[in-house]
Structures are given as structure tokens and as C-alpha cells.
Write a structure and sequence with these properties.
326 residues, globular, 46% helix, 2 domains, alpha/beta
């Protein structure tokens, strides 16, 4: 039976870590190496890692100076010795059959990467990323990239993917960047040729109110636009048939950044505001014609072209409406 390395970066998540760890330790696939990377935690998470290692001889603990999520994942990978690698975030948790299902599929198809669906976990409800949770399919680079950019059948998290060691060992997460998974996936597409996908939502992604995706604007948010600009360049050269999907994801990145900017009172004074809103206004009709976007977002793009204030009012109303799930 092949050994699977589970790399878990840990930083100030003491109240979530034990649940996450137990979901990994209780997997129906038993031959695991659980690499807990204490990334300089200050809340006792590092000590808890050591305590968990005493209870389970499959655990390997690495303590390091804080360097961020990418640094912690890279460090864990250097200490992983399994035949396959999977990354799990320490504030999320996984279904007991997740790893066994991914392993079965990757062996059945001899793929480089196996993917499962994601369950989005909010305070008041759980929502699967893909509405059809029983799909199983194999794909090449082009198909994988298409579905990754759309984000339904293949969500953009790296944590729902089992990767062959020889592929994972070629890749690094970008230290100093946020939205690191977006950068990583482009490198993954260049390195891996074959993929198998199941949409059953085995990975439980917990939406924390204090996560990077729910915070007000800071300049690092622009990393998302930077990441998907890289996809545009790659797709133009390698898969020009995916231009609509690539534009969708780049435009979506601009919306994410703009929405965070509009949570700031003096948003018009932000240095990058004009560039971000200018891109969306310039491409408003193109967005409205791109049916990968949901209807509400296409209408919002037209509202934005007419008046930013109207768009901001609609956005804040939507935030208030959905407050119960965050």
C-alpha cells in the first residue's frame, strides 16, 4: 500500500486544529504520513502539534520561523516522504473516505492528479461547490484548466487534490503571495498531464469571518489579478480555445479586488482603484455577454459601468442579505 503524505500548515489555529487533525487521523486509508508544520504559531498551536504527535506515530512535526502559508507548505513538502502528497488546511476538515477515494481513482486511471469536490461550510449552512455531486471524469490539461477556471467541477483550492510525488516535488508555492493556490495551479497544469475528478464534496472548507477573502482591501489583494494575468498569457499561447474562461477568471479577480476596495470609506483615494474599476468598466459589455458569469454579476457589471455608487449600494445590500452565512 502506497504511503500518502498529508501536509498541514499550522499558524494560530488552536481552536480548529484538533478537529482538522482528527478528520485526517480517522481516514479509512491508513498508510498516512501526517506532516504538521508549525509556522511560528504564537497561540499554542505548535505545542498542540507536539501533543498530537505523541498520540499518533504517523505524525511528523516541523517547527519553523513564521514565513506564511506558502513557506509552510513548501517546508512540509521537503519533509514529506510519501508516494503521493495532499495539502490540508488546519482550519478545515475532511470526510473519512476522502483520501481513500482519491487514491482509488488516481490508481484506477493512473492519473497524475486526483480531485474531489468541496463543501463550503458557513455558520448556518453547508453548500457543495458543484450542484451535481456524483460526476466522475478523466481529463487532460486543457479540460482540467477549463473546469478549474470555471471553478464548479474543479474548485480552485489546492487542498482537494492528491498529487503524485514526482509532480509535487517539482512545484513550489509562491512565498510572499496571497491567493497562492491560483499561482500553484498554473504550475501544476504545466507539470501534470492527466487528471481524474470526482465532484463528491469530501473536503469541508470552513469560511472564517477573519479569513483573507473576507477582509477589507490591502495592496496584496492585487496578487489575485497578477495570478490570473499569468493564466491569460499561458492560455493565449497554449489553449486559445479557453480565452472566454480565462477572461472570466481575470474579470472575476478584478471584481473581488474592487469589492474589497469598496468596503473602505475613501475607496476612490486608493492607489490602484482607477486601474481596477477602469478594467471592469472597459469590459462591462464583454462581462455581460460572458455566460460563465451568473446573471446577477452580469447585471452588476452594467450597473458599474453606469455608476460606481449604484454598484457599491447593490454590493453592500447583498453583503447584508448574506450576512447569516458568513
Amino acid at each position: 500500500m502506497d504511503k500518502i503524505s498529508v501536509v498541514v500548515p499550522v499558524y494560530n489555529v488552536k481552536k480548529y486544529l484538533e478537529k482538522s487533525f482528527e478528520s485526517i487521523a480517522d481516514q479509512t486509508y491508513d498508510n498516512l504520513e501526517i506532516v504538521l508544520v508549525d509556522d511560528g504559531a504564537t497561540d499554542g498551536s505548535g505545542k498542540l502539534c507536539d501533543e498530537l504527535a505523541k498520540k499518533d506515530n504517523r505524525v511528523k512535526v516541523c517547527h519553523k520561523v513564521n514565513g506564511g502559508l506558502s513557506s509552510a507548505r513548501n517546508h512540509g513538502l521537503l519533509n514529506a516522504t510519501g508516494d503521493y502528497t495532499i495539502f490540508i488546511d488546519s482550519d478545515d476538515y475532511i470526510h473519512p473516505d476522502m483520501i481513500s477515494s482519491l487514491y482509488s481513482e488516481i490508481k484506477r486511471t493512473d492519473s497524475d492528479v486526483a480531485v474531489c469536490g468541496i463543501m463550503n461550510v458557513y455558520n448556518t449552512k453547508e453548500v457543495p461547490q458543484c450542484s451535481d455531486t456524483e460526476i466522475v471524469f478523466e481529463c487532460d490539461r486543457e479540460k482540467f484548466l477549463k473546469e478549474l477556471l470555471i471553478g464548479e467541477k474543479i474548485p480552485g483550492s489546492v487542498c482537494n487534490k492528491l498529487i503524485k510525488k514526482e509532480i509535487a516535488d517539482k512545484l513550489q508555492f509562491p512565498v510572499g503571495k496571497i491567493y497562492e493556490d491560483a499561482f500553484y495551479h498554473l504550475d501544476l497544469v504545466k507539470a501534470a498531464k492527466s487528471y481524474v475528478v470526482i465532484t463528491k464534496p469530501y473536503y469541508y472548507y470552513f469560511h472564517r469571518g477573519d479569513s483573507i477573502t473576507t477582509q477589507k482591501y490591502n495592496p496584496r489583494k492585487l496578487h489575485m489579478i497578477e495570478a490570473y494575468t499569468g493564466y491569460i498569457d499561458y492560455i493565449n499561447n497554449e489553449f486559445p480555445s479557453l480565452k472566454d474562461e480565462a477572461f472570466f477568471r481575470l474579470a472575476y479577480a478584478h471584481f473581488v479586488v474592487l469589492d474589497s476596495m469598496l468596503l473602505v470609506d475613501d475607496y476612490k483615494k486608493l492607489p490602484d482603484y482607477k486601474d481596477v474599476v477602469g478594467f471592469l468598466k472597459k469590459n462591462a459589455f464583454k462581462i455581460a455577454d460572458n455566460h460563465i458569469f451568473r446573471k446577477g454579476r452580469r447585471i452588476a457589471a452594467l450597473a458599474l459601468k453606469v455608476n460606481v455608487g449604484i454598484y457599491r449600494a447593490l454590493m453592500l445590500q447583498d453583503l447584508k442579505k448574506n450576512k447569516g452565512i458568513n
